[in-house]
Design a protein that fits this description.
The protein is an alpha+beta fold. Helices cover about 35% and strands about 15% of the residues. The N and C termini lie far apart (about 50 Å). The structure holds 6-diazenyl-5-OXO-L-norleucine (DON).
């Protein structure tokens, strides 16, 4: 059985950038600051801002806008995401990043336009219209990135929006040199080709860019300059009118009223505990944080290191069973917190985790179909279970000289989002509407069952898996974590944590370790191409249905995610970074 019925766009992207994990890949070390992202130009933008005296939020906002220029697959101003901010608790800096010294979480997830309806992607026979929620004008939610980054900068930045946007503006105006990997991918992308303006800008009207070409984006430079001068122009000014006009001309739903009504929201971060570490992670509308906390609570009852080494069958088995259970709850309960009651306390209850542990066979897989939720802990689930997700996103991490940390994951959803570039503005719009439930009870592209808690509704935010996470111990920063990968985000992030905490891997080894993923349904254990074949065989014997591409399958990259991680040495305070070796043009850098 194949895990994905059709190869999702972000997996195609990896086909051009993946290579086998490099055992010699070196940890990048720095004494004061560190930035890591999927694109070297964006990393440099963050370091430039830190050198100017910016703090971690200044740098993260600079990276966010720079990625919107150099990584159009997912870097964006037409999409949305989440930012986790953890001010240092090691000392009292002269200029504290947050006055209250507390962690903050900024939700700049897209919202459905007012005209959106629960069945907008169904035909008259109530069948899903293929592609309608992923490509084209109707696929976009109201973008949140500009509001989110501007809010972060205003409340927690030091240098101001104009200053931190300069690297992005320069990259757009003066251009930057493309690599072969970027060009080959853009040149053949069908989503971009589907829209005349996107085709003109990113595919040079059918004469694709070549490695070594300089890519200049004058319209985007102008747009960024206007945002730097006044970010509210995007939502309430002339730019809002341009966006709404452009969207409506193509049959899209977004109006000036929708844009004016958009707000980025601060939400209380979720806090979990694991082996003495504090795990600060994403609350709803992300499902990521609570799923990881539930899985960690289950795993707390096992001595994973004693069971075997990193990626041993014994460890993978227990971790997979924890995820199977946590994803079951995700599917059944979670949705936009502004419109649903999410039973977070119940999901995070250690007694509930202990009850789940009793259902785990120490050797063999539990078939998902036979899984029974322990009684007495959870409220009755909404009548029909919920959840969806999909691809292409990016994550970046920053730590500044004071030890402030920022972890950000943001997205257009699928690679290049909806493919729509509004003429004159130069940026791609998201297709985040596909993260909603298009049809109640129908499995989506990942085989997830979709339900009412995550139904499309005016002003609703679609449920996400993005999980920017920051880990500390005894009040000291230890890890900044995050990854793209749709529904695989939580397994990637949590395995990064386990690799370091339980198995003693260094941060680069943790980023590169071959991934495994299970999400309850479909009942398949998904393994990366490079996952050890002998361990896969042992897992098969334990009763898992395995999905793993063969090493010779060039069409399917067989890998996912992009761990852009930072670790702080507990004793010396040295920063170490792991830039995911799966991505060829990213970089970790610091000083
Ligand atoms: O919000 C979400 O969970 C998805 N829209 C993220 C998609 C994603 O990570 C794709 N990455 N490859």
């Amino acid at each position: 059985m194949r895990f994905w019925p059709a190869l999702p766009p972000c997996f195609c992207l990896l086909a051009t950038t993946i290579f086998a994990q490099n055992p010699d890949a070196k940890v990048v070390r720095a004494a004061h600051v560190m930035v890591t992202s999927v694109h070297h130009e964006a990393t440099d933008a963050g370091v430039e801002i830190l050198r100017q005296g910016g703090n971690a939020v200044d740098a993260a906002v600079a990276v966010g806008f720079a990625l919107a220029v150099v990584y159009p697959q997912a870097g964006n101003i037409g999409g949305g995401g989440f930012m986790m901010i953890r001010p240092t608790t090691d000392h009292h800096p002269q200029k504290p990043m947050a006055k209250d010294g507390k962690p903050h979480f900024i939700d700049f997830r897209e919202k459905a336009p007012a005209a959106a309806t629960a069945d907008m992607y169904l035909d008259k026979n109530r069948n899903i219209v293929k592609g309608m929620s992923t490509v084209g004008y109707k696929a976009s939610g109201v973008p949140g990135t500009v509001a989110g980054l501007a809010l972060a900068e205003r409340k927690y930045g030091r240098l101001g929006l104009k200053a931190v946007m300069q690297p992005a503006i320069r990259l757009a105006r003066e251009g930057y040199v493309l690599t072969d990997a970027e060009c080959s991918y853009w040149g053949r992308n069908k989503t971009l080709a589907s829209n005349a303006e996107s085709r003109r800008i990113f595919q040079r009207n059918g004469h694709p860019y070549q490695g070594g070409d300089r890519f200049i984006q004058p319209e985007l430079a102008k747009t960024l300059e206007r945002i730097a001068a006044d970010p509210s122009d995007f939502y309430k000014g002339k730019m809002a009118a341009q966006i709404a006009k452009g969207m409506q001309a193509g049959g899209g739903l977004i109006t000036t009223t929708d844009l004016a009504a958009y707000e980025a929201k601060e939400r209380t971060p979720l806090v979990g505990h694991y082996r003495g570490y504090e795990v600060l992670t994403a609350p709803p509308p992300s499902s990521g944080g609570i799923v990881m906390i539930e899985a960690l609570n289950i795993l707390s009852g096992y001595d994973l290191a004693k069971l075997g080494k990193d990626r041993s069958a014994a460890q993978v088995h227990i971790i997979t069973e924890a995820f199977r259970r946590a994803y079951m709850d995700r599917n059944d309960y979670l949705g936009d917190p502004d419109f649903n009651h999410n039973p977070l306390k119940e999901m995070a209850n250690p007694a509930y985790a202990a009850a789940w542990r009793k259902s785990i066979d120490p050797v063999n897989a539990t078939p998902s179909a036979k899984l029974v939720r322990p009684a007495g802990f959870m409220p009755p689930p909404p009548k029909i279970p919920s959840a969806p997700e999909s691809q292409q996103t990016t994550h970046f991490s920053v730590v500044d000289a004071d030890g402030n940390a920022v972890s950000t994951t943001y997205t257009l959803n699928f690679t290049f989002g909806s493919g729509i570039t509004i003429p004159g503005l130069g940026f791609l719009m998201n297709d985040e509407m596909d993260d909603f439930t298009s049809k109640i009870g129908a499995p989506n592209g990942f085989g997830l069952i979709q339900g009412p808690a995550n139904a499309i509704g005016p002003g609703h935010r679609p449920l996400s898996c993005m999980s920017p996470t920051i880990v500390s111990k005894d009040g000291h920063l230890r890890l900044v974590l995050g990854s793209p990968g749709g529904s695989t985000i939580m397994t990637t992030v949590l395995n990064n944590l386990i690799s370091v905490v339980d198995n003693g891997l260094n941060i680069q080894q943790s980023a590169d370790a071959p991934r495994f993923h299970h999400q309850y349904l479909p009942d398949v254990l998904q393994l990366e191409k490079t996952f050890p074949r002998d361990v896969a065989e042992q897992l098969r014997k334990r009763g898992y249905t395995i999905s793993q591409q063969t090493e010779f399958d060039e069409k399917s990259p067989g890998t996912w995610g992009d761990s852009e991680l930072i670790e702080m040495d507990a004793k010396t305070g040295e920063l170490m970074s792991g830039h995911d070796s799966r991505r060829t043009y990213g970089k970790a850098a610091g000083y």
